[in-house]
Amino acid sequence: MNLSRMLAKRADEGNPVRVGIIGAGKFGAMYLSQARLTKGTHILGIADLDPARAKDQLRHVGWEPERYAATGFADAFEHGTTFVTDDSEALIRADGLEVLIDATGDPAVGIKHCLMAIEHGRHIVMVNVEADVVAGPLLAAKAEAAGLVYSLAWGDQPALICEHVDWARSIGFKVVCAGKGTRYLPRHHQSTPDTVWENFGFDEELVTRGRLNPKMFNSFIDGTKSGIEMTAVCNATGLRPQSDGLHFPPSSRLELAEVCKPRSAGGQVEFAGTTEVVSSLYRDGSDVPVHLQFGTYVVVEAETDYATYCFEEYRMLHDSSFRYAALYRPTHLIGLELGVSVASVALRKEPTGSPVGFFSDVVATAKRDLKAGETLDGEGGFCVWGKQTPADASLQHGYLPLGLAHNVKLKRDVKLGERLAWADVEVDETSQAVKVRREMEARFARPNARAAE
After folding, report:
1. Where would I find the H helices in 19-121?
2. Phi/psi zone of residue 201: left (φ > 0), alpha (ψ -120 to 50 degrees), beta?
3. Coil, helix or strand for 44?
């Protein structure tokens, strides 16, 4: 509760937290809209493949032109302005930079930026959760060894869910299930950038006004982003994925404790200590009332009769037995809230969620029948979606991580719904992302994981 005071102190000392961000897309623009208003924060630089587009985004979110008129990083440092460039490596090397935000969404690029940031002594806020689920446990370990902080991004749902889990454990509750809401129907696994707005129910005016990217948003509707985000939560909290991944049961906010308790207790999750994403749609396509489409939650278990009495007395969102209860947050503000992570890593040296192990993976899964010779187009595209899978099973079967299923050629035909393996594609074993992933697997695989059932 003291972050704003700590930021104000840095401002009064003339030493604001100096931040660099790579990627001025939707998430980056949302963060930048608030960063200009946050006392004690100085955006030293913004790197984007298209600096003109980045400057247009700044205008769009309310920045005055003089704020980003710096001619270089030294000029930006001296005058408290911002330098916009297409050179991400120069930004990482810039004198005075404390915190680097990667908001690119590209796993290979995110891994490269993170390793370079560690080399140059910068804390990392990894908005790029796609990179986190490919190699986050290793990246976080490397940052810690260098005396730096690697953090998930506050405002994005994984970090908020991690806070729910930490809240529950800090007061002695057993975490039964944690997760979020989404808009889901089974047919959405076949969604493509051509059908995404129909599946979301978005009209053209909303898409245009919001500058929405169809491939990125398709990752949310086809189930991929849910798998990615719940994998990040598992790897940061030690919760374990269900054996067949997410099931997306429909649930209102008021039913969370009933739905997201173990099957052995009458619920719909496989076991206690897992993740699940609840749907805002019933399977017939009708809306769930009081749904949690944009929110996050945790379900906890009372282990004493007195706690069950308290659940009843204080009108917790309990199940019919009063043994299980839920706490939820109805929405999240994505990049608008990212400043919490920036302040936390710079001032407290504390992440807002960070991977501690390799418990869950996201596996490339065919959206349709695929033919040998086709080139996969990665997350949110026309070929594959990402299915949450226990890490042990992923290693045992040699499954292909979703984050590395981009611009690789298939070596065999693959049927609709089949999970792809490394052996099914032509892999460039010399690429940095592949090498880092292999290193992560070797370091964090539990004993006998490759032989696990």
Report:
1. 26-35, 51-60, 73-79, 88-93, 107-119
2. left
3. strand
Show the domain range for 100.
Answer: 3-155+335-348
Averaged pLDDT, 28-40: 97
Which residues is 384 bridged to in the sheet? 366
Mean pLDDT of 399-408: 97
Are 408 and 370 spatial neighbours (Cβ–Cβ below 8 Å)?
no
- 198 assigned to some structural domain: no
In this prediction, residue 386 carries a pLDDT of 98
Which of 86-95, 186-195, 201-210, 353-362 bottoms out in mean pLDDT, i.e. has the lowest?
201-210
Confidence label for 451 from pLDDT (cuts 50, 70 and 90): very low
Shortest CA distance to 338 belongs to which of 353, 355, 357, 360? 353
The one-character DSSP state at 398 is T
Residues 37, 176 within the same domain: no
Average pLDDT for the chain: 96
Residues 151 and 248 in one domain: no
User: Which CATH number goes with the domain that contains 50?
Assistant: 3.40.50.720
Q: At 213, give phi and psi (nearest 5°).
A: -90, 115
**Helix, strand, or coil (residue 161):** helix
- Total domains in the chain come to 3
Rounded Cα gap, residues 324 and 267, in angstroms: 10
Instruction: Tell if the pTM clears 0.70, that is, is over it.
Output: yes
The pLDDT score that the predictor gives to residue 216 is 87
Separation of alpha carbons 58 and 28, rounded Å: 10
**Co-location of 276 and 400 in the same domain:** no
Residues 344 and 258 in one domain: no
Residue-wise pLDDT tens digits, 135-147: 999 999 999 999 9
Residues 284 and 173 in one domain: yes
Would you place residue 452 in the very low, low, confident or very high pLDDT band (cuts 50, 70, 90)? Answer: very low
What are the residues whose beta carbons fall under 8 Å from the beta carbon of 256, sequence distance 6 or more? 278, 292, 297, 299, 317, 326, 328
- Residue among 342, 274, 347 nearest 124 (CA): 342
